[in-house]
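Two entries, shown back to back:
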Amino acid sequence: MMRTFRFFAVLLLGLALIFTACHSPKTAPKEAFFTWEDSYHRPITLAEAPQRIVSISPAITEVMFLVGAQDKLVGVSDFCKYPPETEKITKVGGMHNINFEQLLSLHPDVVLIGSMISQQDVDVIEKMGIPVVCIVEESSLEGMAEMMEVVGKITQCEEKGNAEAAKWKEKIAERKANAPAPENRKCVYYVVGFGDGGDFTAPKDTHIQEIIELAGARNAGDSLTGWNISREYLFKVDPDIIVVRQEDRDAFVSRHPYTQLNAVKNGRVYPIESGWIDVVSLRNMNAVDYIAEICGNR
């Protein structure tokens, strides 16, 4: 009798456990920390907030410092030279010669890249088990605002990223509102390249043209579709002001036939820090203000 009682007790306990298991609420799957379609139109999912980040984009690196996420940077590209604190961060090679062994040794949770990294290199990094998020450096200054927002979210600095993006948009709107009328704008020629190899300047629909226009001036190359410019075109435009990289200024103003340009004759050739203008970055606003000042628009 006792044995029968024990049998039924065990049976009832088992049925109770089965019933409870069948009716207990299922644990909801953990929500991913970050989901996004990146600049290469790839669906990106980061299960957890990354704590170790490698940036292979000067613009992204600058933004990480801006939003206060620099402590999560464990590696940067050789071209990430601003702010000066980047010198203390491990370098993982250039845009086209990434040191994959060095990168892997840093054990990053994610690698943030811009537009200069090839699909082949992206594939190599992802095969190493490291997520890659592409945030393209936009061809317009306004596109930098989205980069601030996305980087802020990835680095858990969303509030700061959104605030800086809003300030950036306000700066652009302010420069546009204060720009002189088109007919009163000085013509500015930015020297991208010169000499025996040919002459090059920024054509239309580039971030350099946007910088010049935000400064209240007119880009000398605004009718060009490519970066090459003929000498005939250059002398026909005969720009009011010439802007050239500071390291190239002396060579430019002393070289024939540029010495015959009125801007050279009249001492209106101005040096500029290349990091302010050559690539899309936060420092583009320095270039805007500098060109506006030499054009008399500030």
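entry 2 starts here
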Amino acid sequence: MHNLALPCKATLRNGVPLYIIEGGTQDVVRIDMLMSGGYGVQKMPLQALFTNRMLREGTKDFSSAEIARRLDYYGAWIDMYSSQNCNHLTLYTLGRHVEPLLELVDSMLRHPLFPQKNLNTVRGSNKAFFKINSRKVDVVAQRHFEHTLWGEAHPLGHIVEEGDYDAITQESLMQYHAQVYGSNTLSLFLSGKINEKIMMAIERVMGTDTWGTDRRIQFITPQTAVPTYGCKKVHMDGALQSGVKIGFMAMDSDDADYLKFRFLTVLLGGYFGSRLMSNIREKNGYTYHIEAELDAYGKKNAFMISTETDNAYVEPLLKEVDYEISRLRNESVSSEELELVRNYTLGELCREYEGVMPKAEVFINAWLSGQPFDIVNDYLGIVRSVTAEELKSLAGKYLHSDCFSTVIVGA
């Protein structure tokens, strides 16, 4: 496959950067509004998440019902979530409806009211969802795994409790909004079929004046992780299966080994025919699914193997994981397997890059990792050229069980 054309950058009159990924034949546009900060700068658990979520619950210009009606009328929808570095608001709409919807979103970003009645409802529904998830072994294992990686003092290491939901107040959301939201912290990604009218609407609505915080929050560098190595077992009454997480804090995204290690992770557990799936699912029948992945936290990355298994199979499963990792350290990958994984990865990248909006997601993820957009094409080059000797060397350098954190949640 060919290298991807990189986003073009423009700067609006108020200094807001705008990254443009143009393509597609349909009158569809995606606009991503990214506020630097995320939960890396929050003062209390869940503060960033609830501030961002409550933006659609009413502003000085629109009630929550009016926001919902306008989105329905124009056939648009909004995704909202928070990450380590950013609060995300993504608008999907037809190009001809951009201007009235930008006015709506602009009011949500600038002038939210965080009405108490709506906060009570949102907090209650989120708390109920949290309680349901707290009975799922995989979810609980993920919480404890991040705690072992980062330590309790870090925002990423805190294990959320029910009381954290009760502590969220209207005042705490207003404080976070005043601290983080503003034209100084805003970056825009525009993707889809773009014309001059859309560009003029963005400039008029979101690029004319400065507003909000006078801070300039760049990428938040996480505090130093305080990992806990070894095995942590968490008992859950009545659990029929155990959730298992195995991994460690890996290299940053700008490390020279990062892209090759991404490929090694795919080979180990990133596709259906991977080594972990072939051994632990197909050969031994210990699980329905097992995978290895690199989870990004800004520019930092955690290597993680995830699965669920019958309580009785936990120990033999762990032995087989260790066996497959030992093989990577001690044996060179065959040319046949290397070409299989190479072709699989290139095929998946072709699928991932097929549409303009999936491409936007890829470039946004690169931007969130603090890397230049070129890293997307750099990975294509690594997939095409990485050798068996390089993969064996990487495994020997990084994949050592005594540096792993293992979390097991079950009966």
